[in-house]
Structures are given as C-alpha cells and as structure tokens.
Amino acid sequence: MKHVLIINGHPDKESYNHALAEAYLEGARKTKAVISQIHISDLDFNPNLKFGYRKRTELEPDLTEALAKIKAADHLVWVFPMWWSGYPALLKGFIDRLFLPGITFQPVKGKPLPQRLLKGKSARIILTADSPQWYDYLFMKRPAINQFKKGTLEFCGIKPVKVSYIGPVKDSSASYREKWLTKVGLLGEQLK
C-alpha cells in the first residue's frame, strides 16, 4: 500500500496553500493509500542550523516525528508559496534542520556526489506564485524550483519530482483558484 505524506510549508493556515493541501488530501482519501500530513507551522523547532554541518544539533521531538514520516512515505507532496523567488523561511529552516548528512544523504569520500538516502521515493511540488510561470522560467530561471527539486529532493535521491506551478495567484479570479483546487484534488486521487 502506498504511503503519501503531504507537507504544507505555508505558515498561514488560512492561506490558499492550505486549501490546496486540503484538496490533495481529499483526493488522496479516495484511494487506499496511507496518508499522513505535516503542517510545518505547527511544529516546535529552531529553524536555524546553528553550527552548519560542523556540529550536530539534537533534533526536537517534532522534527524527529517529521523525519519518521518522511522516511516512511513513498510519495511526498510539498505545498508552498514562492516568495522572493524562494520559499518561506520556516520551510527552509525545516529543510536545513532535517536534510542532513547521514540522514537524507551521505557524503562519499573522493566523490563529488553523495550516497542518496531517500531513493525509492517520488514527490510532487505544488508551488503558488504571484509571478507568471513564463517570467519565472525565462527571466528568473526557476530558482525556487531548481533549488528545491534539484538541490534538495533529487540530491537526496527522490525521483521523479513533478511540479505544479500555480500563478499568478495575486488578483486571480475565484474560478481560477477553484480550477486549481479541482486539479490538485485529481492529483490526490491519482496519487501523483
């Protein structure tokens, strides 16, 4: 049985991102998958990787539980907004604190690339933005997507990683937002 983990990286529970995460959840509930969730804003942890990789900071209980959910999942669904061509600070802190050597990847002496410890998992990124997708692609070169998809998830062995870019959200119509809620619900039903 497939285990799906939905991770909401938006700090505001009244956000459109929260509604998107719920739409995916409702779709996934129509399947036989085991479903779990993480709302990063609910977690109690220090997002600052105080010592970098020089010295390990003990994981708080909420991070230990989140890590267990990530390791148990077959498919990870990340929902977050793109802010300043990146992602929210709390999501970045979550990644900094959990995606560590020996946990999600292992450096190999003499080799440029690490051993990827999250192989066998797939992911979906559901990203909202106020920039049109063409602008993010042509002028900005997709910094948030590249950093998260290639620099984090694929670096740790998660493949394939599919992306749903929803934007511009600012000043979008209710019908546009509803259309995307429906599409995301269908992704949940298909476990994609």
Descriptive notes:
Strand 4 and strand 5 form a beta hairpin. The chain has 192 residues and is an alpha/beta fold. The protein is globular, with a radius of gyration of 16 Å. It has one domain: Flavodoxin domain (Rossmann fold, 3-Layer(aba) Sandwich), CATH 3.40.50.360. The model has no long low-confidence stretch (mean pLDDT 96). The protein starts with a strand and ends with a helix. The strands form 2 sheets. Strands 2-1-3-6-7 form a 5-stranded parallel β-sheet, with helices on both faces. It is built from 6 helices and 7 strands; from the N terminus they run E-H-E-H-E-H-E-E-E-H-H-E-H. Helix 1 packs parallel to helix 6.
Q: Concise description?
A:
This protein has six helices and seven strands.
Strand content: 15-25%
Assigned CATH class? Alpha Beta
What is the overall silhouette? globular
Number of helices: 6
CATH hierarchy: architecture: 3-Layer(aba) Sandwich
- State mean pLDDT (0 to 100 scale): 96
**Given the helix and strand composition, which structural class is it?**
alpha/beta
- Number of separate strands: 7
> How big is the Rg?
16 Å
CATH homologous superfamily?
Flavodoxin domain
Provide the domain count.
1
Distance between the termini: 15 Å
Main sheet specs: 5 strands, parallel
> What is the H/E order?
EHEHEHEEEHHEH
